[in-house]
Amino acid sequence: MSDLFSSAGLDKSGNRPLADRLRPSKISEVVGQEHLIGENGILSRMLRSGSLGSLIFWGPPGTGKTTIARLLANETDLDFEQISAIFSGVSDLKKCFEAARARRLTGRGTLLFVDEIHRFNRAQLDSFLPVMEDGTITLVGATTENPSFELNAALLSRAHVLVFQSLDEEALDGLLARAEEEMEKPLPLDQEARLSLIRMADGDGRSALTLAEDVWRTAGDGEIFDTERLTDIVQRRAPIYDKTKDGHYNLISALHKSVRGSDPDAALYWMGRMLDGGEDPMFIARRLIRMAVEDIGLADPNALVQANAAKDAFHMLGSPEGELALAQACVYLATAPKSNGVYVAYKSSRRAAQENGSLVPPKHILNAPTKLMKDMGYNEGYQYDHDAPDGFSGQDYFPEKMGRQTFYDPPERGFERDLRKRLAYWERLRRERNGSS
């Protein structure tokens, strides 16, 4: 199997990092991105057509974004120039554009690779537009953040966004095999530890090779590490998770939908991923409360009690003991009967309030503390429900000009099955006492 990196023509001195020594020399040697560079991949099609447009590479670290950009320049005979948005400003961009214009006068094109392009501000991103439009540069920007949120619409309209995928276990294992060829010795790990290292890399090829280098540096002659020893040596690589970016929103979405889908095992997994990535447990507690009222509601009124109790328990116990309370609430919510009846009713009632303006309540339910108000008919005809048969008068409480509305339609699930029967009973009494069939 070909790998992300190829060892052809490499410096064997060992002074360069292993990941750099194993960079691919041809685009066909990159793995893990077959959807882009395979036979029918979009980059392969562009190369066959001889026309390469501006591109935005979006994906996690260590998936080959920089490598592919460099190889694209080689295969399209463009001069490759690289800058980082972290260290570059407007003056650096002007120098790049001026150099590209000078090359263009000699018939040479420029592929400008911008790493971490999302770090540029709007004005800096706008400066790319004219040189992209007139062909001075072919822009290839790389970002680990969602371009929809981090890049402006004008730039996105002039570039094609390509999504890079994390490397799977097979691709990462292939990288380690190529590293073993380069190092001319096997990686001193037993099979379980090798798999653990692959999982520690978390889809990042560069990280896998860096971890492997640490193992080689540490192991003595004939020493083979197991998983426990490996963990002691390299420590555990933190999962790719930024509490303010895509990882944050993607994982909370996965947790919420797992709870809504009544899958406690998946819900616990996603909650564990968030906690393992350093998420604030109180953020998770707040989201569990939201799930309790949005997706369970009155199908199980105790869901909100459980979610609030978990929040209070975490406040009392702290981490890590309090996280068990969050886990308990998570399982309770996932296994509770589901209903969005109250959620839908609330949204419908808000919409009706906005659409019908400032309608006044019917006079019979208005208090009349003064003689004038009594003379105007306030409170006239009001029936005190506790004095009515079954504690239910059947009066109408909507504005007269609006007419009676139905917002809450509980499903036949959980406690709301009883509420549905209760509402149907009251509706029957209302019709009887108001003389309607």
Q: In CATH's first tier, which class of the domain at 33-163 applies?
A: Alpha Beta
Provide the CATH architecture of the domain at 33-163.
3-Layer(aba) Sandwich
Terminus-to-terminus distance: 77 Å
Question: Strand order, biggest sheet?
Answer: 2-3-4-1-5
Question: For this structure, what is the CATH homologous superfamily of the domain at 33-163?
Answer: P-loop containing nucleotide triphosphate hydrolases
Number of helices: 21
List low-pLDDT spans.
Answer: 1-13
User: Cα-atom Rg, whole angstroms?
Assistant: 32 Å
For the largest beta-sheet, the strand count, sense and barrel status come to: 5 strands, parallel
Helical content stands at: 40-55%
Say how many strands there are. 5
| Structural class designation | mainly alpha
Our estimate of the beta-strand percent is 5-15%
Series of H and E elements: HHHEHEHEHHEHHEHHHHHHHHHHHH
Overall pLDDT: 88
Q: Looking at the structure, what is the overall shape?
A: elongated
Which fold name fills CATH's third level, the topology of the domain at 33-163?
Rossmann fold
What does this molecule look like?
The protein is mostly helical and 437 residues long. Among the domains are: 33-163, P-loop containing nucleotide triphosphate hydrolases (Rossmann fold, 3-Layer(aba) Sandwich), CATH 3.40.50; 246-335, Up-down Bundle (Zinc Finger, Delta Prime, domain 3); 361-433, no CATH class. Helices cover 51% and strands 6% of the residues. The protein has 21 helices and 5 strands. It has helices at residues 18-21, 34-37, 42-49, 65-75, 90-105, 122-126, 128-133, 147-150, 153-156, 169-183, 191-201, 205-218, 227-234, 246-260, 264-276, 281-296, 302-317, 321-335, 341-356, 371-375, 416-433; strands at residues 55-58, 79-84, 110-115, 138-143, 160-163. The protein has a 5-stranded parallel β-sheet, sandwiched between helices. Helix 14 packs antiparallel against helix 15. The longest helix has 18 residues, at 416-433. 30% of the residues are buried. Residues 1-13 have low confidence and may be disordered.
